[in-house]
Amino acid sequence: MRKALLAWDLVGIPVIFLSGGLLHFVFAWSGNRTWVGVIAPVNESVWEHFKMAFWPGLSFALAEYASLRGPRPGFWAGKAAGLAAMPAIIGIIFYACTAMTGRHFLWVDILLFLAAVAAGQLAGWRVAVRSGAGRRAEAAGILVLAVLGALFVLFTFHPPEWPIFRDAATGSYGIRVG
Length: 178
Fold this sequence. Notes:
Shape: globular
Number of helices: 5
Structural class: mainly alpha
Radius of gyration: 16 Å
Distance between the termini: 49 Å
Helix content: over 70%
Order of helices and strands: HHHHH
Largest sheet: none
Number of strands: 0
Mean pLDDT: 90
Oligomer: single chain
């Protein structure tokens, strides 16, 4: 199981990276349809860019889970760790680089996204194979993923007016319905 899980998680790196990159444009391509904003970034805020890792990563995890045979102890605990690590890495390094340079560079943002996806996938694999997670850890992993998903939806439509939610280009926050 260990090797099969690693193979899947390594394949997930380019799949999540490329699908996340495409997801960046889906809201605009949809004509700014509100329902698309549930999964696609709706503006240029740091928070909205976290969706580019989370939703493709969760989709890949579901396909991975369905394809793996036999017992999968630690799977959801690992996925929760990895999918929580991705936005944490993106946020910490983005703000650190921006603080040091006073601005951001698109090529750095792209490399940062790739690095965060790779680190998240490998961290998730490590947690899954090392944890020997029981039912509680697996349930906690599923709960973490559900809470993260709910927060992405909630804060798309009702973001706090904090810098992480602010669109750097327009100064707006999320999308308003109605």
